[in-house]
Design a protein that fits this description.
By secondary structure, the chain is of the alpha+beta class. The protein contains 20 helices and 15 strands. Keywords: Membrane, Transmembrane, Transmembrane helix.
Length: about 575
């Protein structure tokens, strides 16, 4: 009897358990279907809303806006032409007028900053000097950095025989836009690089400011400011050899062209600003993926300055711009606040600006994703569905996507930092890294009474290599010297290309006797090295100046100058040798 009752209760228990499981499964199924219906409903609602919105934009009058360029029509502004001609602006509901830059009828340079400030244009293209205007209280906002690196260079030709700013001297006629140079413009990049090179601006023969390339070709001046995307092309076409001195070699790494607006435009019409920015960046991506098509478009619809600015030039310009945009590493338009802060510090050191807060200067684009589309609806209905699997899954995917984006940005910033500190030709440290290391090592040696030594290396008769074998062969010799020398150095040594055919080696905790022994090995290894180029073995020699820190030294600059003087003493002694104090 008891056994029978036990069996009955067991069966009933199992039946109840089964009923509970079935009921729970039905409830879960209904909840799941409700979630699916919820998601599908609002997905369809969002799609319909967007479709209706697009239809309204297509049928209504487009919003007119104007973009002011800072220079004449050329590939430098290709992304904006592409956005207009391929319909990206129209898709965003915008009717865009693109105004030419350069000089007006009176001979004055067109200033995009003034055009945007007084609302004659809603958007403008300019350079990093916009930060100077912002620091003076002008309400500008950077929307996108189109070029991650500046195309600004100091340009000369090989016939003048110099490739460093330090070699300008006081007699050589130059034409730079500097304070009190007789021009209404001033280039902060030029000023910063000249300051790093320790040149006395008041002692320069800079009385002939000009952007006219013919003055350089005719020898009226020996150095002009230029863009790496433009003037070197025309020097090569003339049969001469361009020599570019880059500010980045002196640690001056500014952004190139940027897109900007004014704060009132952003406050009053944030949707228009975001649409214009997004369409412009879409245009830039298209332009860089289709350079030949856009070059043809520019020739047909945007008249250039003259017949010399032909399609071949535009293609050349496009290739140079690709290198400056660095779009294989970062997204087009990428803005790095830390990098802008570094630029601000350089401006401050030059006395061009006071301390400035960048918060209002750098635009933060809106995040248009699925969460944004559903945000208002979820706020109303979040409690019943907070634990729903669909919401949880979405939040998980959103988190993963954000983490991926953060990793991507960190990787991009790391690569940009490497590029800013690396010589692009040889892959070793650049001048900026060396100068920073020299200052740090000098302070450390003074504090802890440690020795350190310095050697400066220069290739003998390097111009002859370029003249006889061409500049590509010369570049290969520079790379080869870097490889041969690097193998002989320690991990603690700082090896850098200082400029042109000149290299430097900073050796911490090293006496001059140890450095001299290493210099002998470097001298011998390069003397025995042969660079094979076009089946021709090119041999070269080097000269080296070696010194160490002395108790009487009051600055790192004194040590460098002493080593540099010893290098020239080695040259005067017949080259292919080492000179010490």
């Amino acid at each position: 009897m008891l056994m029978c009752m036990h069996n009955i209760y067991t069966v009933k228990g199992l039946w109840v358990l089964r009923s509970f499981v079935v009921y729970t499964a039905r409830c879960c199924r209904q909840i799941f279907l409700a979630i699916v219906a919820f998601v599908m409903f609002f997905s369809l609602l969002a799609i319909c809303t967007r479709a209706i919105s697009s239809e309204v934009v297509a049928d209504s009058e487009l919003t007119p806006v104007t973009l002011q360029l800072q220079w004449y029509h050329q590939f430098q502004f290709a992304g904006y032409y592409a956005a207009k001609e391929k319909g990206f602006y129209k898709e965003a509901g915008l009717q865009v007028t693109i105004k030419n830059g350069g000089y007006d009828e009176t001979g004055h340079a067109v200033a995009p900053e003034a055009e945007v400030l007084f609302n004659r244009a809603q958007f403008g293209s300019t350079r990093t000097d916009l930060l100077i205007n912002y620091s003076q209280g002008l309400p500008f906002v950077v929307l996108a950095n189109i070029m991650q690196h500046s195309p600004y260079i100091f340009l000369t030709t090989d016939k003048f025989g110099f490739n460093r700013l330090e070699d300008i001297g006081s007699q050589r006629p130059i034409s730079l836009n500097l304070p009190n140079a007789g021009d209404d413009r001033m280039d902060a990049e030029a000023l910063a690089a000249l300051k790093v090179s320790k040149l006395d601006l008041s002692n320069l023969n800079n009385h002939f400011p000009t952007w006219d390339l013919s003055d350089l070709l005719l020898g009226h001046t020996q150095l002009i400011p230029a863009y790496s995307t433009d003037e070197p092309y025309f020097i090569e076409k003339s049969g001469q050899v361009p020599v570019a001195i880059e500010p980045i070699s002196y640690g001056i790494d500014f952004y190139g062209d940027l897109l900007f607006t004014r704060q009132k435009m952003l406050d009053d019409h944030p949707d228009i600003v975001e649409k214009f920015r997004a369409a412009s960046l879409k245009g830039w991506k298209y332009a860089m993926d289709n350079t030949e098509e856009i070059a043809t478009l520019i020739m047909n619809k945007y008249p250039t300055r003259g017949p010399h600015y032909d399609k071949d030039f535009l293609i050349y310009e496009a290739e140079q711009i690709k290198q400056l945009m660095y779009s294989d590493v970062v997204e087009i338009g990428y803005v790095n606040k830390e990098r802008w802060q570094r630029i601000a510090e350089i401006y401050q050191s030059l006395g061009l600006i006071e301390t400035v807060n960048l918060e209002g200067f750098l635009y933060q684009p809106a995040q248009h994703d699925l969460w944004g589309a559903y945000k208002q609806w979820i706020q109303l209905l979040i409690i019943p569905f907070l634990i729903a699997a669909g919401v949880i899954a979405y939040l998980f995917l959103l988190t993963m996507r954000l983490k991926k984006e953060i990793r991507k940005r960190k990787d991009a910033e790391k690569k940009l930092k490497i590029q800013a500190e690396q010589d692009s030709l040889t892959g070793i440290n650049n001048r900026y890294v060396f100068q920073k290391s020299l200052e740090q090592e000098f302070e450390r040696a003074r504090r802890y009474h440690h020795p350190f030594s310095l050697m400066i290396i220069d290739i003998d008769l390097f111009k002859k290599v370029n003249d006889e074998h061409g500049h590509q062969a010369g570049d290969e010799v520079l790379r080869s010297l870097a490889r041969v020398t690097q193998k002989l150095l320690r991990n603690t040594d700082v090896f850098a290309r200082y400029g042109g055919e000149e290299f430097v080696v900073l050796m911490p905790n090293t006496s001059i006797e140890e450095t001299l022994a290493l210099a002998q090995r470097i001298l011998s290894a390069n003397r025995q090295n042969a660079v094979l180029y076009n089946n021709i073995a090119i041999h070269y020699t080097i000269s080296i100046g070696v010194t160490e820190i002395l108790d009487s030294d009051t600055s790192a600059e004194e040590i460098f100058k002493r080593s540099d003087d010893l290098l020239y003493a080695a040259k005067d002694a017949g080259r292919d040798c080492i000179k010490t104090p």
